[in-house]
Amino acid sequence: MASISSLGAGSGIFSNDLVNQLVEAERAPTETRLNRREAETQSKISAFGKIRSALEGLKSPMEALSKSDSMKAYTASSSNEGVVGVTLDSSKANRGNYSVDVQQLARAQSLASTEQADRDTTAMGTGTLTLNVGGNSTDITIDSSNNTLQGIADAINDANAGVSAGIVDTGSGYRLVMSSDESGTANEISVTVADDVGSNTDSDGLSRFAFDGATSNMEETVAAKDAILDINGITVTRSSNTIENVVDGVTFNVSSTGTSTVKVDQDPGAVADKVQAFVDKFNALQDQIKNVSGYKSVSEQGGVLSGDATIRGLQNDLRQQLTNIPSGLENSPIRMLADVGIKTDPGTGKLQFDQAVFKEKLQENPEAMTTLFADSDQGEGIATQMVASAERFLGSDGLLSNRTDGLNATLQDIQDQRDDLADRIASYEERLISQFTAADRLISQIQSSGNYVQQQLAAMAPSGGGGSGG
């Protein structure tokens, strides 16, 4: 770019300010137009982002309602929580009453060694301990580096053999205690010994830890037991106090012996909460649509997406689903959402939800309710159809993505035009400077010639004389 540091120095007519004013006058109309277009495009991208977020928020509860078990929800209670607690998997549970008599709790086996004078210095012998728990055998090498009570306990814990070990201070000495990690008779501990010195079954050296049914050199301080309980008169035995896979979807957590009555009942309130989440997200989407495309009375203008075909298409799709009658319900007392307490406010387009009506219909006809919302043998429910509608807009090649991609392309085009404008303005500025510099030089020459002529004329003029009259 040409230097303009001395522009106007010769004539005083042209100046840097004049060049700047002419450049700005050339730049301003196009730049203003591009700024306005960019701001409008950015606003549309932001608006589509808000619609996408609201639609994704709606899709989640719709997906929950589209599952075949969406209308199943149960609650469980125990008359004696101190004996039996209960947890449920509503997708598998069914109504039922269960009389539970806990006769025995499951326990893990514990073994204790003979008492020793210390835990860290006395050698216990060397060789191999083989632990068998639940049919799994683990060999543990005991040598001079770990043949104390504490060393053997650490080696057992490091072996992950299904046994935990520790040292108990009795007050008069120390005992090694082994406990099965899992309760029940199936997890009893067997310890066989390959002693480097003497017999594998005597009470000296490493063999003092043998406990394998034939040799009991350790003391069984706690016997392994299974949980035993009667459920509606049927005896059930488990190795754990968490009793699963007895009643579908029901887990009994027993904590003491005694009796309790467990009741599993339908929980229409939990299902209504799922539907309420759908209604709330649907209404939130309507608010966003109104915000970006509705008429604003304060500004007396439409939203940035007013009249947009994609937004109209989304609205039409969702509204159509609200009044659909799924296959199989044509002659049912439950045919559409309005029949179960979900109605549209014609003034706002939002949904109104009467939970009392919904709960009543759910208890009267749970199968028809499932058909209304979810996939069934008859076909797709309303929630399933609405999920499909949402995906048409939300997918990577969906309508919202296509619109956003188009707007991003517009932003790139605007940037390209800005680059072209910058090049054109730079060229225009250089041209102005060149023209003004030439004009300035010409005027300077004219001024110089004028000064010369004036000087010559002044030289030719007669000098003033002072003659005296006689």
UniProtKB/TrEMBL annotation:
Residues 224-448 form the Flagellar hook-associated protein 2 C-terminal domain. Keywords: Bacterial flagellum, Cell projection, Cilium, Coiled coil, Flagellum, Secreted. It comes from Marinobacter persicus. Homopentamer. The keyword Secreted applies. Pfam families: FliD_C, FliD_N. It is found in: Secreted; Bacterial flagellum. One of its GO terms (biological process) is bacterial-type flagellum-dependent cell motility. Residues 11-109 form the Flagellar hook-associated protein 2 N-terminal domain. Its main location: secreted. This is Flagellar hook-associated protein 2. GO terms for cellular component: bacterial-type flagellum filament cap; bacterial-type flagellum hook; extracellular region. Belongs to the FliD family. Coiled coil: none annotated. Required for morphogenesis and for the elongation of the flagellar filament by facilitating polymerization of the flagellin monomers at the tip of growing filament. Forms a capping structure, which prevents flagellin subunits (transported through the central channel of the flagellum) from leaking out without polymerization at the distal end. InterPro entries: FliD, FliD_C, FliD_N.
